[in-house]
Protein backbone atom coordinates (compact mmCIF):
# COMPACT_ATOMS: atom_id res chain seq x y z
CA UNK A 1 0.00 0.00 0.00
CA UNK A 2 1.49 3.27 -1.09
CA UNK A 3 1.46 5.99 1.51
CA UNK A 4 0.97 9.67 0.93
CA UNK A 5 3.25 10.72 -1.92
CA UNK A 6 4.61 14.22 -2.20
CA UNK A 7 6.80 15.63 -4.90
CA UNK A 8 9.20 17.10 -5.36
CA UNK A 9 11.07 16.34 -2.13
CA UNK A 10 13.16 19.45 -2.55
CA UNK A 11 12.33 22.53 -4.58
CA UNK A 12 14.50 25.59 -5.10
CA UNK A 13 13.01 28.76 -6.52
CA UNK A 14 14.20 32.33 -6.97
CA UNK A 15 12.20 35.20 -5.55
CA UNK A 16 9.27 36.02 -7.78
CA UNK A 17 8.94 32.55 -9.32
CA UNK A 18 6.08 30.12 -8.82
CA UNK A 19 6.24 26.97 -6.75
CA UNK A 20 3.95 23.98 -7.31
CA UNK A 21 3.82 21.24 -4.72
CA UNK A 22 2.01 17.99 -5.39
CA UNK A 23 0.37 15.50 -3.08
CA UNK A 24 -1.20 12.16 -3.91
CA UNK A 25 -3.22 10.86 -0.96
CA UNK A 26 -3.30 7.29 0.22
CA UNK A 27 -5.53 5.02 -1.82
CA UNK A 28 -9.12 5.40 -0.74
CA UNK A 29 -8.55 8.73 1.06
CA UNK A 30 -10.57 11.66 -0.12
CA UNK A 31 -9.54 14.26 2.48
CA UNK A 32 -6.30 16.19 2.09
CA UNK A 33 -4.68 18.67 4.45
CA UNK A 34 -1.68 20.91 3.82
CA UNK A 35 0.56 22.06 6.67
CA UNK A 36 3.63 24.29 6.78
CA UNK A 37 6.58 23.74 9.08
CA UNK A 38 9.03 26.53 9.70
CA UNK A 39 12.49 25.66 11.12
CA UNK A 40 12.30 24.46 14.73
CA UNK A 41 8.52 24.97 14.76
CA UNK A 42 5.52 22.71 14.79
CA UNK A 43 3.24 22.24 11.84
CA UNK A 44 0.68 24.93 11.08
CA UNK A 45 -2.51 24.09 9.23
CA UNK A 46 -3.00 25.80 5.90
CA UNK A 47 -5.91 24.27 3.98
CA UNK A 48 -8.26 21.29 4.00
CA UNK A 49 -9.70 19.93 0.77
CA UNK A 50 -11.91 17.18 -0.46
CA UNK A 51 -12.24 16.22 -4.10
CA UNK A 52 -13.05 19.39 -6.07
CA UNK A 53 -13.86 21.34 -2.89
CA UNK A 54 -11.99 23.58 -0.49
CA UNK A 55 -13.46 22.88 2.93
CA UNK A 56 -11.34 25.14 5.14
CA UNK A 57 -8.65 27.55 4.00
CA UNK A 58 -8.46 29.57 7.19
CA UNK A 59 -4.74 28.90 7.63
CA UNK A 60 -3.68 29.88 4.16
CA UNK A 61 -2.41 33.40 3.34
CA UNK A 62 -4.99 35.28 1.30
CA UNK A 63 -2.52 36.35 -1.36
CA UNK A 64 -0.19 34.32 -3.57
CA UNK A 65 -1.28 30.94 -2.14
CA UNK A 66 -3.87 28.63 -3.67
CA UNK A 67 -4.75 24.97 -3.45
CA UNK A 68 -6.82 22.52 -5.43
CA UNK A 69 -7.74 18.86 -5.33
CA UNK A 70 -9.22 17.97 -8.72
CA UNK A 71 -11.43 15.02 -9.47
CA UNK A 72 -8.48 13.31 -11.14
CA UNK A 73 -4.88 13.70 -10.13
CA UNK A 74 -3.00 14.97 -7.11
CA UNK A 75 -3.71 17.89 -4.85
CA UNK A 76 -1.64 20.95 -5.76
CA UNK A 77 -0.44 23.72 -3.47
CA UNK A 78 0.60 26.69 -5.55
CA UNK A 79 2.63 29.64 -4.36
CA UNK A 80 2.97 32.54 -6.75
CA UNK A 81 5.70 35.17 -6.66
CA UNK A 82 7.59 33.41 -3.88
CA UNK A 83 9.45 35.37 -1.24
CA UNK A 84 12.20 34.34 1.19
CA UNK A 85 9.68 33.89 3.98
CA UNK A 86 8.01 31.08 2.03
CA UNK A 87 11.04 28.86 2.69
CA UNK A 88 9.71 25.97 4.77
CA UNK A 89 8.77 22.33 4.69
CA UNK A 90 5.27 21.74 3.34
CA UNK A 91 3.52 18.59 4.42
CA UNK A 92 0.45 16.97 3.04
CA UNK A 93 -1.72 14.59 5.05
CA UNK A 94 -4.62 12.45 3.91
CA UNK A 95 -7.48 10.95 5.80
CA UNK A 96 -10.21 8.46 5.06
CA UNK A 97 -13.21 8.21 7.34
CA UNK A 98 -13.64 10.48 10.33
CA UNK A 99 -12.45 7.74 12.69
CA UNK A 100 -9.06 7.37 11.09
CA UNK A 101 -5.92 9.40 11.84
CA UNK A 102 -4.18 11.56 9.28
CA UNK A 103 -1.28 10.03 7.40
CA UNK A 104 1.56 12.29 6.34
CA UNK A 105 3.82 12.44 3.34
CA UNK A 106 7.56 13.07 3.59
CA UNK A 107 7.11 16.72 2.72
CA UNK A 108 8.48 19.16 0.17
CA UNK A 109 11.31 21.35 1.36
CA UNK A 110 11.05 24.66 -0.40
CA UNK A 111 14.07 26.95 -0.51
CA UNK A 112 13.86 30.46 -1.91
CA UNK A 113 17.07 32.04 -3.18
CA UNK B 1 -8.86 28.73 19.86
CA UNK B 2 -7.46 25.30 20.54
CA UNK B 3 -3.78 25.01 21.43
CA UNK B 4 -1.15 22.49 22.46
CA UNK B 5 1.83 23.19 24.68
CA UNK B 6 4.67 20.74 25.04
CA UNK B 7 7.93 20.89 26.88
CA UNK B 8 10.75 22.58 25.11
CA UNK B 9 13.72 20.60 24.04
CA UNK B 10 16.18 19.46 23.27
CA UNK B 11 16.07 16.50 25.61
CA UNK B 12 19.21 14.41 25.83
CA UNK B 13 19.11 11.03 27.54
CA UNK B 14 21.37 8.05 27.89
CA UNK B 15 20.24 4.75 26.46
CA UNK B 16 17.82 2.87 28.73
CA UNK B 17 16.83 6.04 30.59
CA UNK B 18 13.19 6.87 31.36
CA UNK B 19 11.52 9.39 29.08
CA UNK B 20 8.73 11.84 29.82
CA UNK B 21 7.66 14.57 27.41
CA UNK B 22 4.94 16.77 28.85
CA UNK B 23 1.99 17.91 26.78
CA UNK B 24 -1.02 19.96 27.84
CA UNK B 25 -3.85 21.22 25.70
CA UNK B 26 -6.62 23.78 25.56
CA UNK B 27 -9.79 22.89 23.71
CA UNK B 28 -13.45 23.80 23.88
CA UNK B 29 -14.80 20.30 23.42
CA UNK B 30 -13.48 16.78 23.83
CA UNK B 31 -10.66 16.44 21.35
CA UNK B 32 -8.78 13.39 20.20
CA UNK B 33 -5.11 13.49 21.19
CA UNK B 34 -2.11 12.26 19.26
CA UNK B 35 1.64 11.87 19.43
CA UNK B 36 3.50 11.98 16.13
CA UNK B 37 7.22 11.32 15.61
CA UNK B 38 9.40 12.86 12.92
CA UNK B 39 12.74 11.34 11.99
CA UNK B 40 15.29 13.51 10.19
CA UNK B 41 14.26 14.37 6.65
CA UNK B 42 10.98 12.52 6.89
CA UNK B 43 7.33 13.25 7.41
CA UNK B 44 5.35 12.67 10.57
CA UNK B 45 4.40 9.18 11.65
CA UNK B 46 1.56 8.53 14.04
CA UNK B 47 3.00 7.07 17.23
CA UNK B 48 -0.14 6.70 19.33
CA UNK B 49 -3.54 8.25 19.95
CA UNK B 50 -6.37 8.47 22.46
CA UNK B 51 -9.90 9.54 21.68
CA UNK B 52 -11.53 9.95 25.08
CA UNK B 53 -10.75 10.63 28.72
CA UNK B 54 -8.73 7.96 30.54
CA UNK B 55 -7.84 6.20 27.27
CA UNK B 56 -4.24 5.04 27.11
CA UNK B 57 -2.50 5.00 23.77
CA UNK B 58 0.55 2.78 23.40
CA UNK B 59 2.97 1.74 20.68
CA UNK B 60 6.61 0.59 20.49
CA UNK B 61 7.01 0.92 24.25
CA UNK B 62 5.65 4.48 24.31
CA UNK B 63 2.53 5.32 26.31
CA UNK B 64 0.34 8.33 26.94
CA UNK B 65 -2.87 8.64 28.95
CA UNK B 66 -5.63 11.13 28.16
CA UNK B 67 -6.14 13.09 31.39
CA UNK B 68 -9.17 15.32 31.12
CA UNK B 69 -8.86 16.68 34.65
CA UNK B 70 -5.37 18.02 33.99
CA UNK B 71 -5.86 18.49 30.21
CA UNK B 72 -2.66 16.54 29.63
CA UNK B 73 -1.32 13.77 27.41
CA UNK B 74 2.24 13.18 28.54
CA UNK B 75 4.39 10.79 26.55
CA UNK B 76 6.42 8.19 28.46
CA UNK B 77 8.80 5.36 27.69
CA UNK B 78 10.50 3.22 30.26
CA UNK B 79 13.76 2.59 28.44
CA UNK B 80 14.78 4.67 25.43
CA UNK B 81 17.03 3.51 22.62
CA UNK B 82 19.32 5.42 20.29
CA UNK B 83 16.84 4.72 17.50
CA UNK B 84 14.21 6.77 19.40
CA UNK B 85 16.15 9.96 18.60
CA UNK B 86 13.66 12.15 16.73
CA UNK B 87 11.31 15.08 17.15
CA UNK B 88 8.05 14.31 18.94
CA UNK B 89 4.88 16.31 18.35
CA UNK B 90 1.79 16.36 20.48
CA UNK B 91 -1.40 17.22 18.58
CA UNK B 92 -5.15 17.42 18.97
CA UNK B 93 -8.14 17.23 16.69
CA UNK B 94 -11.56 18.55 17.63
CA UNK B 95 -13.35 15.81 15.74
CA UNK B 96 -12.99 13.63 12.69
CA UNK B 97 -12.05 15.31 9.44
CA UNK B 98 -10.73 18.48 11.05
CA UNK B 99 -7.22 19.95 10.98
CA UNK B 100 -4.68 18.92 13.58
CA UNK B 101 -3.34 21.49 16.04
CA UNK B 102 0.29 20.79 16.88
CA UNK B 103 2.66 21.67 19.65
CA UNK B 104 6.07 23.02 18.68
CA UNK B 105 7.77 19.66 19.00
CA UNK B 106 10.39 18.26 21.35
CA UNK B 107 13.70 17.05 19.99
CA UNK B 108 14.97 13.92 21.72
CA UNK B 109 18.55 12.75 21.45
CA UNK B 110 19.49 9.41 22.95
CA UNK B 111 23.19 8.68 23.36
CA UNK B 112 24.76 5.27 23.75
Textual characterization of the structure:
The complex is a heterodimer of chains A (113) and B (112). Chain A has strands spanning 5-7, 10-13, 19-24, 31-37, 43-50, 53-56, 65-68, 75-79, 88-95, 103-104, 108-112. With 113 residues, chain A is mainly beta. In chain A, strands 2, 4, 5, 6, 9, 10 and 11 form a seven-stranded mixed beta sheet that branches. In chain A, strands 1-3-8-7 form a four-stranded antiparallel beta sheet, with no helix packed on it. The mean pLDDT of chain A is 93. Chain B has 112 residues and is mainly beta. Chain B is built from no helices and twelve strands. Chain B has strands at 3-6, 11-14, 19-21, 23-26, 32-38, 44-50, 56-59, 62-65, 75-77, 86-93, 101-102, 106-111. In chain B, the strands form three sheets. In chain B, strands 2, 5, 6, 10, 11 and 12 form a six-stranded mixed beta sheet that branches. Chain B has a four-stranded antiparallel beta sheet with strand order 3-9-8-7, with no helix packed on it. In chain B, strand 10 (86-93) and strand 11 form a beta hairpin. The radius of gyration of chain B is 13 Å and the shape is globular. The model of chain B has no long low-confidence stretch (mean pLDDT 94). Classes of the chains: A mainly beta (113), B mainly beta (112).
Helix content of chain B: under 10%
Q: Which pair of chains has the greatest number of interface residues, and how are they split between the two chains?
A: A-B, 28 and 22 residues
Strand content of chain B: over 45%
Order of helices and strands of chain A: EEEEEEEEEEE
Strand segment tally of chain B: 12
Q: Major beta sheet of chain A, specifics?
A: 7 strands, mixed
Which runs of chain B of at least 5 residues are low in confidence (pLDDT < 50)? none
Rounded Rg of chain A: 13 Å
- Uncertain residue ranges of chain A: none
Number of strands of chain A: 11
Shape of chain B, please?
A: globular
Number of H/I helices of chain B: 0
Q: Provide mean pLDDT of chain B, rounded.
A: 94
Distance N to C terminus of chain B: 41 Å
Share of β-strand residues of chain A: over 45%
Write the element-wise H/E pattern of chain B from the N-terminal end onward.
EEEEEEEEEEEE
Q: What oligomeric assembly is this protein in?
A: heterodimer
Amino acid sequence: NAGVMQNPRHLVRRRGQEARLRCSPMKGHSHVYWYRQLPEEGLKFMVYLQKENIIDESGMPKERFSAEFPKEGPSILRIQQVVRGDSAAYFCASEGSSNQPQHFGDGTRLSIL
Amino acid sequence: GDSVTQMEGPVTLSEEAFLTINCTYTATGYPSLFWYVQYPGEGLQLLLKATKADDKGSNKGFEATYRKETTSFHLEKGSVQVSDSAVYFCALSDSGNTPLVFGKGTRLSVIA
